[in-house]
């Protein structure tokens, strides 16, 4: 039996993945109402294919709000969300608390696996604590690679599994995993990399650092393209063919970092570098670049609309920080809404809902994309939901009062927009308002 | 971070401007008066801020409902040495002493982008202040002094850092629109360092005043750079000036004495704070300068300018 303690986004997806692989799974959360809802297939999260995947494995998956039931499990994962503060620093207090509860309620010999992201040093501190207590519990750290919008796919078919172990105690490399845990991981059919705790904790951060570096270089060069008359989209294919950069490199320009996870890891690296005297000045540069790119749409709205027309109305498509998720954490759209307080904003998002009371009175969320465009002087599309591409440019033009379309992430076909007389702006290409024939 | 303590714009009860006869102060007072705002402009003739004894007199003039604009400063053309710096700091010290005993509803300190080092990449309010010269150090120190005094007095404070200002009434003859206009008018030429490659941002003094008025009306606090975000090269500027000046202007290049250093501003913070605020386009601002200094010429069509190098001149 595999157990999951903490039915966060990570916990829900991971427990369903484990059941799909044929294991009996017990999923625990202290929130009884949540457990009841999940048992009937009502999910508080959105992920593609979640409903169908759950339906296929629900007879192997049981939800409970009784912590003691986890004593039945051979391997128990801790999968709570780790909150971050306004400074993006992780607050591990909840992790400490839940791990303590779990340790106190696990049967002797249970394999505990920390799936929630922990800063380097955390797992060893707990391993020593558990080693000093009786109970014969072993602790591992497994790197989670949750990607909102692709979480189920990544949980079912990971590229590799990274496991942090108490290598120093076992004095063997690679560390040998207990049979129950090894058998579970083998079901995923991918390489498993056991390593010391600190390496695994840092591996997760390292993955995100490389992604941030790629994003930041892309954004910097895309910004230069906009000023030099180059088009970043013309350059990208040549980069993907360079094996040192790679076909899957992050080369699409964006509106800075959002979602929370990357920013958290940047804050962790900065804190570690400060504490241990390591050089990490590039983190500041990445953060400056991210903040600057986040406001690309605002600056363009100002130069094209706000400074030219009295009493403008702005249409906004996309509130989530990326497609296929309802999460708006650190979303560029939320930053734009707050920056445009007092200016009428008509918004639409297929999934994300903002609490009206938390945003300016001038903000309203509408049930369809074209309704949001009615009478607008400009349309800004900050989340490239695929459904936007199907909306005819002529329909957009007809609904709007103005002609400005700010589409940083190319949700629409720019050529079609220009053909119907819209002034179309995208990241990485110089502004060109003329109609192309 | 910029914050508006009064989201709904409300004119202040009274605006006291220190440096009332200066380039910025005079323009600001004129615009405030046009809007019907009660003002008190003070210059050296009224109150010598370099004298410590002036603190008491200033304190007696201030009311708790006043907005105080500190625009008094000795500019670099009056000296770039330690003596000028200390006199400027003495002014700030006097203002601080007055504020400590007579808090105001709002304090606006007019500083300078000189607080940032030359060669700084895209300058924003987050760019570290690392002034290369005494003038920039002076402004940074004044900001710190005023901010601390205002904080202790419970007076909300705004630090404004304008980039290069221009306007017909500017007495300083700094390299840029001001000097180019004067030399076009008096000598029929504009002399550029090198080929005028350096890019700089220029703000019309009327735009700075307009922005200050918005800040006063909304009791804005924080730190804000004042720049258009559209830096142009001095060569382009000379070209624009010769285009609006009605008589022929000779543009002269010279041998370059120092490396080209550009200066650009990220104006996102200003856009966020005042989304509808617009700057006067440079060409229009230069035309307005010409109209003001030479109204009798401003109706003539501009004539072709010529370019010569230092060797040919």
Short key terms for the protein model shown above:
heterodimer; A: 437 residues; alpha/beta; eight-stranded mixed β-sheet; 17 helices; globular; B: 313 residues; seven-stranded mixed β-sheet; three-stranded parallel β-sheet
Note the quaternary state here.
heterodimer
Placed side by side, the strands forming the largest sheet of chain B appear as 1-11-6-5-4-2-3
Helical residues, percent of chain B: 25-40%
Q: Identify low-pLDDT runs of chain A.
A: none
What overall form of chain A do the CA principal axes indicate?
Answer: globular
Count of helices of chain B? 9
Share of β-strand residues of chain A: 5-15%
Profile the largest sheet of chain B.
7 strands, mixed
Q: Can you put this structure into words, describing what you see?
A:
The complex is a heterodimer of chains A (437) and B (313). Chain A is an alpha/beta fold and 437 residues long. Chain A has helices at residues 9-20, 32-39, 50-57, 93-104, 122-132, 151-156, 167-170, 179-186, 197-228, 232-240, 261-276, 281-294, 296-306, 332-339, 369-373, 393-399, 414-419, and strands at 2-5, 25-28, 61-64, 75-78, 111-114, 138-142, 161-165, 192-196, 314-317, 345-348, 363-365, 378-381, 404-406, 423-425. The longest helix of chain A has 32 residues, at 197-228. Chain A starts with a strand and ends in a 12-residue tail after the last strand. The model of chain A has no long low-confidence stretch (mean pLDDT 91). With 313 residues, chain B is of the alpha/beta class. Helices cover 36% and strands 17% of the residues of chain B. Chain B has nine helices and 14 strands. In chain B, strands 1-11-6-5-4-2-3 form a seven-stranded mixed sheet, with helices on both faces. In chain B, strands 8-13-14 form a three-stranded parallel sheet. In chain B, strand 2, helix 1 (23-34) and strand 3 (39-42) form a beta-alpha-beta unit. The longest helix of chain B has 20 residues, at 82-101. Chain B is globular, with a radius of gyration of 20 Å. The mean pLDDT of chain B is 92. Chain A binds chain B through residues 288, 291-292, 295, 298-299, 301-302, 306-308, 310, 339-340, 342-343, and chain B through 7, 122, 124, 126, 229, 266-268, 271-272, 275-278.
């Amino acid at each position: 039996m595999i157990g999951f303690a903490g039915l966060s986004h990570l916990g829900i997806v991971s427990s369903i993945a484990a059941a799909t692989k044929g294991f009996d799974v017990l999923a625990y959360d202290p929130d009884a109402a949540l457990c009841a809802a999940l048992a009937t297939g009502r999910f508080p999260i959105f992920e593609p294919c979640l409903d169908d995947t759950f339906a296929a494995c629900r007879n192997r998956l049981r939800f409970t709000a009784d912590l003691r039931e986890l004593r039945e499990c051979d391997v128990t994962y801790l999968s709570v969300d780790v909150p971050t503060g306004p400074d993006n620093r992780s607050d591990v207090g909840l992790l400490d608390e839940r791990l303590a509860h779990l340790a106190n309620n696990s049967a002797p010999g249970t394999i505990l696996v920390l799936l929630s992201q922990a800063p380097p040093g955390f797992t060893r501190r707990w391993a020593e604590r558990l080693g000093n207590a009786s109970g014969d519990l072993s602790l591992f750290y497994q790197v989670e690679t949750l990607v909102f919008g692709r979480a189920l796919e990544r949980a079912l078919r990971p590229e590799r599994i990274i496991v942090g172990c108490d290598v120093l105690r076992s004095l063997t490399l690679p560390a040998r995993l207990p049979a129950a845990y090894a058998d579970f991981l083998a079901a995923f059919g991918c390489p498993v990399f056991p390593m010391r705790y600190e390496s695994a904790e840092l591996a997760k951060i390292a993955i995100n650092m490389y992604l941030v570096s790629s994003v930041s270089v892309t954004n910097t060069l895309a910004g230069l393209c906009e000023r030099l008359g180059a088009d970043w989209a013309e350059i990208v294919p040549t980069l993907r063919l360079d094996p040192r950069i790679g076909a899957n490199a992050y080369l699409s320009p964006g509106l800075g970092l959002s979602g929370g996870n990357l920013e958290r890891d940047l804050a962790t690296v900065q804190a570690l570098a400060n504490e241990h005297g390591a050089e990490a000045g590039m983190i500041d540069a990445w953060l400056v670049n991210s903040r600057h790119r986040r406001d690309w749409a605002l600056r363009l709205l100002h130069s094209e609309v706000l400074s030219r027309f009295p009493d403008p109305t702005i249409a906004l498509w996309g509130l989530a920080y990326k497609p296929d998720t309802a999460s708006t954490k650190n979303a560029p759209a939320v930053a734009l809404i707050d920056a445009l307080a007092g200016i009428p904003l008509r918004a639409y998002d297929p999934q994300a809902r903002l609490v009206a009371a938390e945003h300016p009175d001038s903000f309203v969320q509408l049930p369809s994309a074209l309704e949001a465009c009615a009478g607008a002087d400009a349309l800004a599309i900050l989340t490239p939901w695929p459904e936007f591409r199907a909306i005819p440019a002529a329909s957009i033009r007809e609904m709007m009062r103005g002609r400005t379309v700010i589409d940083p992430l190319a949700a629409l076909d720019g050529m079609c927009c220009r053909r119907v007389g819209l002034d179309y702006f995208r990241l990485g290409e110089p502004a060109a308002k003329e109609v192309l024939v | 971070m910029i914050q508006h303590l009064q989201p709904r714009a409300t004119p202040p009860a009274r605006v006291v401007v220190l440096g009332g006869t200066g380039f910025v102060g005079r323009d600001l007072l004129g615009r405030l008066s046009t809007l019907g705002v009660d003002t008190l402009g003070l210059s050296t003739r009224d109150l010598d801020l370099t004298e410590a004894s002036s603190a008491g007199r200033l304190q007696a003039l201030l009311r708790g409902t006043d907005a105080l604009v500190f625009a008094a400063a000795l500019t670099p053309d009056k000296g770039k040495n330690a003596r000028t710096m200390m006199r400027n700091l003495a002014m700030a010290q006097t203002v601080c002493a007055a504020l400590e005993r007579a808090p105001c509803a709002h304090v606006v300190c007019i500083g300078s982008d000189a607080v940032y080092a030359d060669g700084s990449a895209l300058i924003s309010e987050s760019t570290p202040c690392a002034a290369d010269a005494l003038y920039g150090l002076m402004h940074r120190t004044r900001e710190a002094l005023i901010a601390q005094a205002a904080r202790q007095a419970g007076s909300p404070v705004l630090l404004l850092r304008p980039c290069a200002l221009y306007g017909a009434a500017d007495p300083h003859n700094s390299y840029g629109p001001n000097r180019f206009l004067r030399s076009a008018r008096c000598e029929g030429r504009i002399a550029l360092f090198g080929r005028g490659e350096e890019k700089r941002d220029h703000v019309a003094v009327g735009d700075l005043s307009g922005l200050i008025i918005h800040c006063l009306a909304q009791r804005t606090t924080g730190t804000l750079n004042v720049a258009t975000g559209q830096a142009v090269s001095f060569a382009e500027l000379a070209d624009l000036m010769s285009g609006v000046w009605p008589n022929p202007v000779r543009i002269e290049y010279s041998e370059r004495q120092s490396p080209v250093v550009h200066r650009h501003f990220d104006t996102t913070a200003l856009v966020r704070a005042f989304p509808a605020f617009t700057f006067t386009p440079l060409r229009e601002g230069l035309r307005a300068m010409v109209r003001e200094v030479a109204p009798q010429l401003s109706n003539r069509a501009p004539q072709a300018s010529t370019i010569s190098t230092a060797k040919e001149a």
